[in-house]
Amino acid sequence: MKNICKIAILGVLLFAGSCKDYLDEPPKYIVTDEDILSNDAGLKIYLARMYSYLPIEDFKYMGEWGVEFNSWLGALGIEATGEALTRDGICRPFTYERTPYWGMAFTLLRDANYLLENLPKYQENFAAPMYNNYLGQAYFVRAFTFYAMARRFGGVPLVTRVISYPAEKDVLEEPRASEEETWNQVLADFDRAAELLLPASPVRGYANRYVALAFKSEAMLYAGCVAKYNETVSGRLTGTGQKTGVRVIGFDAGTWQAASKRYFTEAYKAARIVMTEGGYSLYKKKWSATDREAQYQNMVDMFSDLTSAENIFVREYEYPTVTHGIDAYSGPFTFRGPLSGGTCPTLDFLELFDGFDRYPDGTIKVTSGNSNTQGNYLLFDSPMAFFANAEPRLRAYVIFPGDQFKGKTIEIRGGVYTAATPINPLFTDYSYAASGTRYQHSAAYTNANRTLFLSPNSGQSQVTVNYTDPNTGQAATMLAAGEDGPFFENGEATITGLYLRKYLNPDPAFVPGEGKSDQPFILMRYADVLLNAAEAAIELSLAGESSPDGSNLIQVATTAINDIRERAGATLLSGSLPATEEGRNIVRKERRKELAFEHKTKWDLRRWRVSHYEGRDGFWGEVRNKDMYSSTTNFRFRGLYPFFSTRSGKYFFDAHFQWVSEKTFSYGPVDYYFEIPTGEVAKSPVIDQQPNR
Amino acid sequence: MKKILFYTLWCAIFTFSACSLFTLDNYEEPAETLQGVVVDAATGDPVLTDQSSEGIRVRLTELSWTGVETPTPNPDFFCRPDGTFRNTKLFKGTYHIQIDGPFIPLIREDDRGVPLADESQTMEISGVTDVRFEVQPFLKVEWAGEPTVSNGKITAQVRVTRAVSEADFRAKIEPMGGYSSAFLNVTDIQLFVSYSSSVGLRARDERWSNEIKYAGSAFNSLLGETITIQSSGTIPSGRTVFIRAAARINYDTPAGSGTKRYNYNTPLEMIIP
Asked: Do B147 and B261 sit in the same domain of this protein?
């Protein structure tokens, strides 16, 4: 009886099932295209995913990690760019990324391609401008991703369609395109994005037309430089893939010149549209033409002010949900939490700026003679006196010894010197060959009658020096090292004598900690665009090209540089920029100064091809003799170390190669293109390795 | 209850044993040896080098392994300073052997990738396999006299000559495209000093090593002449150091890598009195 009942019920169910397509109806718990792509709320989710995987470089990026969105040890400019140094192995040349930007890129490209292919099915659900704006977002993401790949690898597989799986092998496999085709794709996608995107995004944080154009100008500048400056690397930096015979890196001897002109023209045009139509301007809320203190404060504030008219594309953070940790890793030693001193600016970087006395060779003057080894040390009443005329922009980027931060004086002192004045230089040789010598090796420290006192570490390890104050005649004591270092056995304080100020939270009430920071990171600002326009203008003039929009190339470049210098409190140009390599170097140097610690310089050095030995004279934007800081294989950077002289009660400075946690870098022409992940090459019949590896 | 537990355990053991839990990897360990020497085709002398990524690079590609569609090279290794190399952990099979160093490239192609010449070798490696590469080094570097020491400085005399004639170099390199007569210029002479007997570009002490650079074709008149080069700094007395001289031309191998490799002479041991 029971069985009959069961069979009956089953029969009824089956019977009923045939009336309606129950089995074909999508289950309620699966999100469909219809749910996501047919309305604004769904697309907001779709775009949020794409934006959160966009390969941006902010507080959560570091050359060592690659695109990992990883805030740990947050530091800026430490990839052997010369801007800053840090104690750990993460401070190394930009020759590879731990996580190569390859697999992730294809996931993001698929997301963008999927939107491009499927959104048209729901076109009638949106007003035309919004519909175009969504397509524009997809093109922007695709352009940004191809750009991120191209500057790493050269030619990459141009996946511009959704590849469905499973499929035939020849459908799934996409070989690397040539480098020229890849840049053309980047150009085409940015152009499509700029055409479709709204001038102002309806949602904060999304790209708009000018964001696309600003990044287009940056990308085209990269492409133009690769085409042009690959020729300056011996043997022409180019080659064809082993499997496909495609020119996966570099340009053909017959096409590079035309390509480079075309890309520079595009870079200039795009930057000009942002300048004339974008409505952006340099941040000058607190700026005053006559007050250098105001100029300094203005440039400190501009990086955290979300209402700044200079901001074009910004990665925002919000405590406690979306945070980073720059203050926890890169602040001064006394504010450590849990770490500090992750970004220590170098003396070589400081030498780019105005407001210091120089030796005849252009290096900073610390003695009365004509070089480091001649004369006696110049004495200063306080460390800050040395920086009295420093460019306000530099002070906004770097904490000087004795300057204020969060309401406290940052005490940086290398050591205490007790012998009589005048004081001869501590070393007889300051050349690169002697860069391994430290203050612990100096005669003043090693002599039985010690006159130089240094501290290996903070707290209990600090060495106390008793002396007679020359002004009062009273007995006095002083700790050998400053409270903020440098300590010769602890790389967690400053290792160069300087600290980072840019981007740190200046609020005295803020307690740094991991995941406590929520300053925004400005990925693209108006000054970038001005510098892109200026560099493209000079490159076009050098190539003998005429202005693509009728504007005066040299005039535009000169005004751009002067506007930036005026805001920074730097010396203005005395006339027009010359249309020569010298003029180009002025623009490059300005770019290195203005955009320091913004993840831009390491790419600039790459596209200028100035990191390998033969090209290294141009490493600083301006021409500097590379042999001053490098040998044929390696290079190192310098620090600026203040010392207190007890006999005079004054400070003197010594300019020396990095004293603590010494870092040595090397870079060769092969490093201008990253290696394709070997696993990808091994498993594919079409993906080529770089031909010069 | 106990029985159930017992059976469960019994089954578990069976399951694991199926994954060869108790046996070692069944693949034979790589045990074949390849040893080789790189010699000057003209004189039969070994081509001396530096054991680093700027020395002579040996690249093996196993062709007999069919696990992948496109064979990719094994991890590169490098010649010893005396111009020999040896790898004792290879799987048995057929390999393509290519070396790159300061000599005329063995594989030459034009800019479009059309092969011009291929002097690389493909061979079966099994047991201890010997291979000999006869190459045309760019330069020959020799000591031109006993180095002397005074006041912690070493003064060495070096003679540099071309090991491949200019005409021969041009005949072989020009078809590869982008030829420039500047390729033949000797760019610098190095004197490497180190505490290590494997002294070279990557094992030198930067305090004492020195170099002389030559712009353009300035060195041409000095070919075959005795060049005097002195170490820099002051080497502390009582130490034993090793020295070596090297020179290179303005041509990178493999083409496009930007690595201009040095030709070396034999290292010498020096006692600093």
From this structure: yes
Q: How large is the ipTM?
A: 0.74
pLDDT tens digits, A143-199 = 999 999 999 999 999 999 999 888 888 888 999 999 999 999 999 999 999 999 999
Residues from chain B that touch A169, judged by Cβ atoms under 8 A, are none
B120 and B152, same domain (yes or no): no
Please indicate if any CB of chain A lies within 8 Å of the CB of B120. no
* Chain A interface disruption, residue of B57, B63, B69, B120, most A CBs within 10 A: B69
B102 and B223 co-located in one domain:
no
Which among A214, A207, A133 has a CA at the least distance from the CA of A526? A214
pLDDT tens digits, one per residue of A197-223: 999 999 989 999 999 999 999 999 999
Q: Touching check for A436 and chain B: CB below 8 Å?
A: yes
Is residue A466 helix, strand or coil? Answer: strand
Residue keyed to tokens 């945070």: A323
Strands B93-100 and B121-125, how do they pair? antiparallel
- 3-class secondary-structure state, position A380: strand
For residue range A47-59, what is the model confidence (pLDDT) as tens digits?
999 999 999 999 9
Q: What is the pLDDT of residue B47?
A: 95
According to the 3-state scheme, what is the secondary structure of A184-240? HHHHHHHHHHHHHCCCCCCCCCCCCHHHHHHHHHHHHHHHHHHHHHHHHCCCCCCEC
Q: At B90, which CATH number?
A: 2.60.40.1120
Q: Do residues B120 and B158 share a domain?
A: no
Total domain count, chain B:
2
Q: With beta carbons less than 8 A apart as the criterion, state whether A588 and A535 touch.
A: yes
B-chain CB neighbours of A691 within 8 Å are 256
**B25 within some domain:** no
Whether B202 sits inside 8 A of A633 (CB atoms) is: yes
Average pLDDT in chain A: 94
Q: Tell whether B62 and B104 lie within a shared domain.
A: yes
Q: Compare CB distances from A691 to B112, B252, B256 and report the shortest one's residue.
A: B256
- Say yes or no: B148 and B264 in one domain: yes
Rounded-to-integer distance, Cα B51 and Cα B192, Å: 14
Residues A237, B256: C-beta atoms closer than 8 Å: yes
Domain assignment of residue B168, given as a range: 139-271
Interface test with B, best of A96, A176, A232, A234 (most B CBs within 10 A): A234
For residues B241-263, average pLDDT = 91
B150 and B53 share a domain? Answer: no
And the tokens for A288? Answer: 């005053």
Assess if residue B18 is contained within a domain: no
Per-residue pLDDT of A469-479, as tens digits, reads: 999 999 999 99
Q: How far apart are the first and last CA of chain B?
A: 86
Cβ of B216 under 8 Å from any chain A Cβ? no
Beta-carbon contacts of residue A347 (< 8 Å; ≥ 6 apart) = A364, A496, A497, A498, A637, A638, A639, A640, A655
Residue A236 forms contact with B (CB below 8 Å) = yes
The CB density around residue B14, as the number of other CB atoms within 10 Å, is 9
pLDDT digits (tens, 9 = 90+) for A314-356: 999 999 999 999 999 999 999 998 999 999 999 999 999 999 9
**φ, ψ for residue A67, nearest 5 deg:** -80, 90
- Which of B80, B114, B135 lies at the terminal end of a domain, its last residue? B135
Looking at residue A480, its pLDDT comes to 96
User: Does a structural domain hold residue B7?
Assistant: no
Kindly determine whether residue B68 and residue A683, on different chains, have CB atoms separated by under 8 Å: yes
Residue B116 resides in a domain? yes
How far apart CA A401 and CA A451 sit, in angstroms, is: 22
CA distances from A547 to A264, A396, A538, A553, A580 (A): 11, 35, 11, 6, 16
Do residue B72 and residue A245 have CB atoms under 8 angstroms apart?
Answer: no
